[in-house]
Amino acid sequence: MSKSGQVTVFFSLALLCIFSLMCGLLESARTAGTRCYLKLAADSSMDSVFSRYHREAWNKYRLFLLECENGGELEKAWEGFMEPYMDSSGWYSMDMEKADTMQLFRITDGGGQYLKQEILDYMKYGIFENMTDEKGAEALLKNLKEAKAVKRLSGSFRDHEREAVRLERALEDINDSLKQQKAYWKSAYERIRDYDGTGFRREADLLEREMNRIPSLVKAYGKKADDLKNSLSGTNNDLSSAQDELSQEVREAFIGDTSCYGSYVNQDGERRREIEALPVQMEQIKQVMEQARKRSSEVERIIDNWDSDEEEDDGPDLSELWGSVGELWAKADIPSLSYSNGVKDPEKQRLLEQLEGFIQTGLLSMVLPDGKEISKGILSDDSFPSVTCGDGQVLESGLLDRLLFGEYCGRFLTNVLSEEDKEVMYELEYLVSGKKTDEENLKQAVLEVLMIREGMNLIHILSDDQKREEAMSLAGLITGTVGLAPLTGIVAFFVMSIWALGEAIVDVRMLLEGKKVVFLKSRSTWKLSLDALLELGRTGTWEGGKEDEDGIDYTSYLKLLLFPGESGQQHYRLMDVIQMNLCRKQADFRMANCVYQAEVRGTVRSRHMFFGGNNPFYPVEVRTEKAY
């Protein structure tokens, strides 16, 4: 019986198609699984690499920093963590071929933005008391800018007050010269009455010598007047450009209290015309003096040559002869100015000026508590990130981000009040100042705190009518002028600005004693009277004041200084401090070697299980990225 094979052949072909489909599906599934397994392995390996963060940096500063000098070191570490996954790939059958670093972002890159992100990631979990919102941060920034603007402008107007006082002293020199001329003139007139020609001419010579000083005195006066006018014009321009930084109340008070400067300059224009006429008057007087001198010589010759044959002749009429000299001399009328100099109590003026001199020469000695020693720490290091990586990139930061950065620095950095014993103590002051030594950083930071306090104190004085009246009264004593004379107004503003400075010195001393000082002053929190201000100018010492319970401490004031500062610069200085401290245990530690984010591309060789022919291997590429 014959059999047909058609069904068997058909069935075999069908099975072949079915098995091919099934194997293709299995191979496709295995390939997809390979990629999934490889991605999982790559990400897990990258997590393992980044888990090797610097433990000391975390313990001290709560920062994740991965030490890695170059991409090759990162690749090697990543391949090491990938190796167990390759050995256990089993069904997926993979072998690592190579790894390439595609991107490597170090903590020092990006103008400090990566360090900023790490700090914000940590600080967002913090619990803060009285943490302000965005609106409050804007108000705080406005107050700080206003305080700095008021301090800057008041400093300029203080300089103008000194210029005005120097101008008054130049006027006093001219007045003194005219008074001395008057004394010589009177003395010469007495010699005429005594018929003493030699004495008369001697006094006349002294008078002429004094008169010869007038042109140089007038010239010096004119130069000082020009300097004041020009510099005041520049300050008025600064005041106009600073309008947006001042509140309406402060702006109106400031403009009102400094308007006297313009009045003084205008008044001086009239006075200057009178003064500049003096050299011409002196020349005219000299001509009269010369006539009187010649006449005195003629009178002496007449007397010496008198010859009379009459026995009853009593000799020449001396009264008439010398009277002619006196008549000429009377025409040499020495002028006097209709304006007098306005500094009647230079001692009080000197005490107020001396207070500002103390700031320039011995600020720390005035504000540091007795017995407090200044650290001798040095921060000079050519490997600091601020030197090697601070390329001037601008880091944009929101107001709340700045506040959080300041809060972070206040928690983790030391300052002059810290009790921790370290070689470099004033870390927070370094962020503010950026100097090379602890002493320089402390001095600069204290000076900037003083500037903020001075500005805020002056804002309070300008809003307090009682203090303004007290300042006007003291100014009246100094100038000897009653009423609202321009010079009195100038000195009154000078008194107010120095008063604000003196109160700021007291504030800073209290802060460095560990006490609190309010940011916005009131009458109840004001410490320094005008009498105490003069004593402070005399001795340079102050016993201190009562702490303001609702105030803020020294560390908080340093954080206020950081708030409006340049963020990128501050972040690099923070890196300097971190590197400096971590180098004490690990000398070769460098922030520039610390990775924040990395991307690696890996290439593996996988094998087809059902296909491939003579070359069953094929490459598979994977990318993985990780950031702290």
Number of distinct helices: 20
Supply Rg. Answer: 44 Å
Main sheet specs: 4 strands, antiparallel
The secondary-structure element order is HHEHEHHHHHHHHHHHHHHHHHEE
Average residue pLDDT: 88
Q: Please, what is the oligomeric state? A: single chain
Amino- and carboxy-terminal Cα gap: 82 Å
User: Low-confidence segments, ≥5 residues, pLDDT <50?
Assistant: none
Beta-strand percentage range: 5-15%
Shape, principal axes of CA atoms: elongated
Helix-strand makeup class = alpha+beta
Number of strands: 4
Helix coverage percent: 55-70%
Summarize the structure in short.
The chain is 64% helix and 6% strand. With 628 residues, it is of the alpha+beta class. It is elongated, with a radius of gyration of 44 Å.
What does this structure look like?
By secondary structure, the chain is of the alpha+beta class. 64% of the residues lie in helices and 6% in strands. The chain has 20 helices and 4 strands. The protein has helices spanning 6-50, 55-61, 71-87, 113-123, 134-193, 197-211, 214-241, 248-276, 278-304, 318-331, 346-367, 385-388, 399-412, 427-433, 438-462, 465-479, 486-512, 530-539, 554-562, 567-582, and strands at residues 66-67, 94-106, 594-607, 617-627. Strands 1, 2, 3 and 4 form a 4-stranded antiparallel β-sheet that branches. Helix 5 crosses helix 15, helix 14 runs antiparallel to helix 20 and helix 15 (438-462) packs across helix 17 (486-512). The two termini are 82 Å apart. The mean pLDDT is 88.
Salient structural properties:
628 residues, alpha+beta, 20 helices, 4 strands, elongated
